[in-house]
Amino acid sequence: MKNYLININNSPKAKELEVLSDSTFSFNGTAMNYEYKFVSPNILVLRIENKNFVLKVEKDTEADTALDNSDFLIDFESEQFNVNCKNELDILVEKFSKNRADKGFKKDLISPMPGSIVKINVKEGDKVKKGQVVIVLEAMKMENELKATNDAIVSKILVEEKKPVDKGQALIKLEPFQ
């Protein structure tokens, strides 16, 4: 099962979507059958409860969080919708960040769970943008993209690829732009 929070057109309350199987999902507590097929890179045919929907889906490059792959523009019957979709890891990281007393600049990129480093996408001295994928962490046979929480400079990389890490372990030290 995969859980997502979907926010459409910046509504005050996000909707819950849970993928139950390859053909069933639950949207705000209502289970539905679905099928989908991309007929081109950005045209999706979605069949929900035997009703077809044709959607044009594009990355929202204008959104503040465009680098984190969670903002989309969806065109349905000539009406456009801004959609923000967060997976379980995004929600966990956001919740973890909100509960921390220090709301300022985050100097350390912290591992949200135990796992092993698959890929380090930066090197010391690199400038990174908020939302940029810095490290790929494998946990429970899933690859999770860990993203920069601020625009920053990578001052120190504390881990190596293919090495295990613990929950709460500092992975990268960041410094603010001067």
Structural description of this entry:
The chain has 178 residues and is mainly beta. The mean pLDDT is 85. The strands form three sheets. It has an eight-stranded antiparallel beta barrel. A four-stranded antiparallel sheet has the order 9-16-14-11, with no helix packed on it. It has one helix at residues 88-99; strands spanning 2-8, 15-19, 24-27, 30-40, 43-48, 51-59, 71-76, 79-87, 108-110, 115-120, 127-128, 133-139, 142-147, 152-157, 164-165, 170-175. The chain folds into two domains: 2-87, 2-Layer Sandwich (Glycoprotein, Type 4 Pilin); 100-175, RNA polymerase II/Efflux pump adaptor protein, barrel-sandwich hybrid domain (OB fold (Dihydrolipoamide Acetyltransferase, E2P)), CATH 2.40.50.100. β4 (30-40) and β5 (43-48) form a beta hairpin. The N and C termini lie far apart (43 Å). The chain is elongated.
